[in-house]
Known about the structure:
One of its GO terms (biological process) is cell wall organization. By secondary structure, this protein is an all-beta fold. The protein has no helices and 10 strands. Strands 2, 3, 5, 6, 8 and 10 form a 6-stranded parallel sheet that branches. A 4-stranded parallel sheet has the order 1-4-7-9, with no helix packed on it. The relative contact order is 0.22.
Amino acid sequence: SLKFNFLTNSTIRRISSVDSKFFHMIIFGSENVKAHDLRISAPSDSPNTDGIHIGDSTGIAVSRSVIGTGDDCISIGPGSNLITISNIICGPGHGI
């Protein structure tokens, strides 16, 4: 898993994550973060393998990415607002 905690005015780009055990990527306690051109994959039968989890964050934009997992492609936790998701290819997975 990749954890991005307490970022401000940052960009996450061109990262690939394959077969992570649980969340592939976590963005937590962050503000004004752009994440794009990501590739995340796990088998469709792998449990609890969220692609990206966003928690307690504001102004997060995720775009132009391919996410296929056994659970949620993108999950948004409590305390998060102003989240923008666009141009995502999601599947397999439970959606956003």
